[in-house]
Design goal:
The protein has 297 residues and is mostly helical. The chain is 61% helix and 6% strand. Strand 2 (27-33) and strand 3 (36-41) form a beta hairpin. Helix 8 packs parallel to helix 10 and helix 10 packs parallel to helix 12.
Length: 297
Amino acid sequence: MRAIGTLSNESHAQIFGDFLYARGIENAVEPEGNSTWTVWVQDEDDLETARELLEQFRQNPTHPKFQEEAGKARLLKEEKERDDVEFQKRYHERDEILPASRPYGIGPLTIGLIAVCVYFSVQTKLGADENILRLLYISKYTPHHPLLGWLPEVRNGEVWRLLTPVFLHFGIWHIFFNMMWLFHLGSMIEARSGSLLLALQVIGIGLLSNVAQYFMGVSYFGGMSGVVYGLFGYVWVRSKLQPSSGYFMDRTNLILMIVWLFLCMTGAVGRVANTAHVSGLLIGMAWGFLASKINPK
């Protein structure tokens, strides 16, 4: 910050400081003793312009243009103060989002979901035990079986099949990455909105994404990915539309999730339940949109 000159009248010094602010020149006016006030300019690039304007002001400090610009500056400062207050309302420290009272910031339901996924992974030997898998797939038969029709087991009372595919994982990396994202997103949702909402989202997104995948012609599939993409969509939309909610999605994780979504669609990573991914994402985004409108605070 550099000094550009002094003024002998406090009122004039304040008016000139506001005038510079209205012109987009950051500055400060400070008393120097002996009834003089020094004008300081922050940006080196503004020095020459500010000095020229100071000379004009000294020659005619009562010119209307200085008064008008100073008035605009006061309005701009008031608006900036309001923006700063709103920003502070929207800003949340990590400890507020993931309370320290919970171990490692993870809630009981998130722990339970991870435990269930690990349990089924052990029991099915990470997808190697077909006998158990056939009890948990959405159906043992191809969709729209010529003799049995759609979802024959579910229609016969085995309703758990609509949800159990989300707990099945086929390989160590499959469960590792899904649990990592479930830990991150589930913890945030449970901490901010409670275990009940997370439970409803897992059930709702899980059911709908599983059914969507089934009706695309696949019976043998599994994984928490559809639910994870739903939770991601919910957090992403709420963080954008309702920053005061405390939800956040940093740019790196956002890019990773979107890139992985499209990479899976190419088939480069093998057979993937892409319909479950996309439908889960869309359901989560719609949920986040409605939540931000129903509860805008």
